[in-house]
Specification:
Order of helices and strands of chain A: EHEHHEHHEHEEHEHEHEHHEEHH
Distance between the termini of chain A: 38 Å
Strand order of the largest sheet of chain A: 3-2-1-4-11-10-5-6-9-7-8
Largest sheet of chain A: 11 strands, mixed
Oligomer: homodimer
Strand content of chain A: 15-25%
Chain lengths: ~350, ~350
């Protein structure tokens, strides 16, 4: 029997909580069977709401032994201030869930709740891995190649320091290898030009550090290279990374708003938008980070995966499997080992 | 008779120089007639190459009095270092052209050549408008609304200072009003969240300055708001602006590479990609900045419009008209007047 992996699901995070969270956990249990994963799901949140969804599921009988419900009375809301939430909502599913992870009650934690709060609370409770200056959040974006690109940092830290960029590269490299199975992921440093003199002192210094490292450093990449999949990993400061991620997520929305205008235009020229729309949707679907099973919080002591508020049950399932893979591949231990060397 | 407006066209900039540049100038002359613009075009570059294209044009006879060719022996190449180019290529179309503008030989200058070199050479030769800390390059991006958004800075200055951001807002506001005819353009400050505490000290300070100004300041906008046209103008540091602009330009390329894959997929399900592709191209066409007639260099003493290296004759024409409008609306005088107040 494979070693048991226990994932805490924050049942109260997300816009459709606890429904999507509970359903996602059940889907993960179902899928774990055929994938030879010995999975336990620990739902944390309002038991009175979680219980009925779990027990009414057709999957309940088969997986009841793999399900635990831990009660938490409070909820960290999407607009809650992270520090305030940590201080005043000790009974929330988020604070209690992350504390449970810290105390060894589980191996990983996933949440589709408040990203900033998850970042802050996880960093404060779990602590940083030795050698990590700043934990980072990475996100997968689609590319024209057959694989997504891992962009980080996407907003954990605004400041741009060469050391941070260097650490993001190490953490991204390890995560990309673990999740995507790429042996030596290529690393691009996001910049305004290819030359190693570009982008200001911090990026110039990061370029040098990356070049001298044992990583598969490609060099500078520009904004236009990200979607073309020029490298497996792209590192940048959290400000520009956040802008790019959200900008990318704005595309499907722009298209959704444009389509009605094109329906009129197209009927003039006889184009059937019923043909066009599904293809467009398909092509744009990858732009939602959740397609790739949430985004990892890297650099804290423990496995934490964060999802969009609007995560579907399928996304929650994917997040659980991202956590499982990160645990199996010992991503945090590898980060510690790599950063200790430097 | 309306006052004459003389535009210098750098005939040697751009990947298809001098052909597209010369053709674009001729198209502009043709269009000027019906638009009641008293336009003169001054081509600068290798006369032996410019002359045959001009004289073989069917438009030549009609507009010959409005065409001047000024000889320049050298070319600033796309990969040339800006400072080096300024020092060593004094006989280039770029250095001579911008010097001619400075000396009063013309009212505006357009080039599809090396953007960095144009920025540096124009700033050094023309000088900054009084009150301008850093000249800025703005770019129009499409939105789901019926009008594009002006994003600036897109790469002139990497550093983020509140004063720069404030000045970009003033310059962007004036340019947007002049070119788009929007009375009080709304200004968004690009940030990682809506709250006025986000984005680090410089952006927090810029927020305050903008809020206290007489501009139509909307507040912070996020990456996802840009394409939705939440504001008419979006200001940010040149690093993130450059990343976003190039990222946006990467989209049509990604789609172009994805389409063949979808052709296969779609034929399985009977989708006619011949229907889909033109609609997609149409929807994505706005993502190329050149559709909007190049990007303005704002904050220097004189009217300078920069275009992509791959500018078509039509784009060159649009750049010429952007310059004409900026001159007619006295954009640089308005910038000076506004910034003197502060």
């Amino acid at each position: 029997m494979k070693k048991k992996i226990r994932i805490i699901v924050d049942a109260m995070g997300g816009d459709f909580a606890p429904h999507n969270e509970v359903e996602g956990g059940l889907l993960a249990l179902q899928a774990s069977k055929s994938n030879d994963i010995n999975l336990d799901i620990i739902y944390i949140g309002d038991s009175s709401k979680i219980e009925p969804i779990v027990s009414s599921s057709s999957l309940y009988d088969e997986f009841s032994e793999h399900i635990t419900i831990v009660a938490a009375k409070e909820i960290v809301a999407m607009h809650d201030d992270p520090i305030q939430a940590l201080k005043t909502k000790k009974e929330s599913s988020m604070v209690k869930g992350i504390q449970l992870l810290k105390d060894g009650g589980a191996d990983g934690y996933i949440s589709a709740g408040n990203t900033g709060a998850t970042l802050t609370i996880a960093t404060m409770i779990l602590g940083r891995i030795e050698g990590v200056s700043r934990p980072t959040i990475g996100a997968f974006l689609p590319t024209s190649q057959k694989k997504p690109v891992l962009l980080l940092d996407v907003g954990a830290t605004i400041d741009c320091h060469s050391r941070y960029l260097f650490e993001y590269a190490i953490m991204g490299s390890i995560y990309s290898k673990a999740i995507q199975g790429i042996d030596k992921p290529s690393i691009g440093l996001l910049n305004v030009g290819e030359e190693d003199t570009k982008g200001g002192a911090e990026r110039v210094d990061a370029y040098k550090q990356l070049q001298e490292s044992s990583m598969n450093f490609f060099g500078n990449v520009e904004g236009g290279d990200v979607l073309l999949g020029k490298t497996d990993v792209v590192v940048t400061d959290g400000f520009s990374g956040n802008c790019i991620l959200k900008f990318a997520e704005g595309f499907p929305k722009m298209f959704a708003e444009l389509i009605p205008q094109y329906v009129c235009k197209s009927s003039d020229r006889g184009t059937d938008m019923n043909v066009v729309v599904p293809v467009l949707k398909d092509m744009l679907s990858g732009l939602n980070a959740e397609e790739y099973g949430g985004v990892p919080l890297l650099g804290v002591k423990g496995t934490v995966i964060i999802g969009h508020g609007n995560s579907t049950p399928r996304t929650i399932m994917m997040m659980i499997f991202s956590a499982v893979t990160a645990i199996e591949k010992e991503v945090d231990k590898k980060i510690e080992a790599e950063l200790k060397k430097k």
